[in-house]
Amino acid sequence: MTFLAPILITAFYGGAIYFATKGAEDNTQKTIYLSSNNALVQKIDRKFNNFEFINEPNIPPGGTVVLDKMNDDIEKEKVNGWLIIADQDLSNLDSTELIVKEAFSVNQKNTINEFLKSQITKQLLQTKGISQSILDSAQVKGGISMVEENESGKMENSSSELKSGVGFIMAFIIYFFIFMYGSMVMRSAMEEKTNRIVEVIISSVKPFQLMFGKILGVALVGLTQFFAWILLSLLFVLGIGKYLSSGIQMPQNMPQGGMNNQQAIQSLVDQNDLIGHLQSLPYAQIIVVFLLFFLGGYLLYSSLFAAIGAAVNQETDVQQFMLPVSLPLIFGLIIAQSVVFQAPNGHLAKVFSMIPLTSPVVMAVRVPFGISWTEIFTSAAILYATFFIMVWISAKIYRIGILMYGKKPTWKDFAKWIRQS
Amino acid sequence: MSFIQVENVYKYFEDKCVSNNVSLEIPEGEIFGLLGPNGAGKTTLIRMLATITTPDKGKISLNNEPLSSNHSSIIGYMPEERGLYKKMTVVDQLLFFAELKGYTRTQAKQEVKFWMNKLDIVSWADKKMEELSKGMAQKIQFISTILHKPKFLILDEPFSGFDPVNADMVKDLIISLKNEGTTILFSTHRMDNIEELCDQLAIIHNGEKILDGKINAIRQQFFNHEYILEFTNNDMNNIETSDNQFDIIQTQINSFGRKEITFKLKENQSPQELYKQYSQSNAIIGFKEKMPTIHQIFVNQVTSKN
Lengths: 421, 306
Prior knowledge:
Helix content of chain B: 25-40%
Largest interface: A-B, 16 and 24 residues
Low-confidence stretches of chain A: 248-259
Radius of gyration of chain A: 30 Å
Strand content of chain B: 25-35%
Shape of chain B: globular
Order of helices and strands of chain B: EEEHEEEHHHEHEHEEHEHEEHEH
Oligomer: heterodimer
Largest sheet of chain B: 6 strands, mixed
């Protein structure tokens, strides 16, 4: 399970993301009646993507009254909708309506909208004497690329998308594993308490040693899993890299169907770019931040979880304590998603990467964009200092909680136990 | 010299005093019974002796040294409520506890092997705890408590959950440990065990020690000068009706259909005189002093303090 769990989790999320993006697409053919008195409209393309337009000369009076025929055709599923372009001045499509029985998705509506606009623009330009060839020659291709100075002063290509992606994946992994391993610690403390083994154990070791040992033990399990995972990923990346570099020397081996040679080479160049971007990431920082903040975040949260596990008597009591403790981390992930994507080095991002309860997640998402080592170590120092304070407080709750049976503890009891010992 | 010495120990829980000026002395190599109604403070005292908690006031010493967690390797503790790691195998569980008490892996393996052979449970070695019956699990727990050869053994209700056969086995083990010099404190509600096994006892009530001493001395102390005469023939009504100088406090027919009469002697009367008076009738089959049981003493003591 040590080796399998990360793979299963990756497969699980990969699958979920794949189905969320691909599986939801509606690929069925849609036939739509097109009615318009405007001569220009007659010239637009009749087919695109999964849509097909069929001319329907019977324009309903006023443009909005649905004819029996159409209703009937839609009913019989001969067509899916009726697009009525009533406007004479095509520079504004406000009076254009798409009549449907079953609503199209937002994507489908937007696709039709964009298609219509681009086709009409094209026709309008042509009426003004601008031909297709002039239009094609005026098309601007490509996009700006970001070049960043790296630590050694060299200029390197940089991709914000890739950085956001890598950062967010790391933040999510940290978030996910803090919860996973944290609750492992909690469950273990709870098991020992409800089984009463704990009395035997703490007659041999101090409660603090037991708690700390438990936290460290689970941390080592976590790190073992991570190293196994990193190793597997490296092998995977190396394998892909080898495949791609062998591909670039032999573009003729690329599949031809639907893609001409030029496109094939372009896509290889793009992939090569991706590898270039991948290589430009600040790996040393990423690895240091990941290990430091995963471990620090886990230690901090698991000491809280251990105290909860020791205090409660049964699983059902856990919920009320878990929620307030987990909120900061969830909050950190939300911050990571919004603020950090927009301004990874902004004030808000900097503040939350110094607050120990959110820093593990926020730091992880920021690191691919490059942060100073000073900032990393300051944040880590705050995180670890908080952990030491928290483990000291948790140990007090743990020490008393673990021998308390019967009534469900409250926050008040926690405060009392901390004061007492 | 006492092996364990508890001197004027106080333990407070919030504002409640759960151990109130308790002093005890447990001689080396003896079995000491700790009695008390539920909630009397036995577990609190036991937890202090097992080094789980420390007294707020007073001191506890073991072999003339202040009791500390350094002694944990010579203390064995079996709590009343029991449990082991459900997913662990029997042998891993035992190795874990032995190592927890400071044994090396090799030593631990030897001990585990020895005990598994001794109790004839070798075939359980690779079973998970959750596969075992309650009695089997209790046996494993008992082994895990004594595996490291503790000099001081604390057993809280050691017989609960055992069937009579296993209870006897545990009893024999306790006696053999005592014979090897182990000092044992054991807490129970079962008075028959106390009378059978213990050399000394203490009764705790509301956090205070209300009685302690050697079992026989205590029974002697509460002896009420009562004697029982047993007669073969239960038709001897004349005994009760005849004018006699001895006070009869109870008459009953025992399970063998024989009449038992309990007499209470006055200060100037001797049991010999009592015997003499009735020995003329050939019906006498038994004569014994009626010693109070620990059960009676316990109930009397606790109810009188309520």
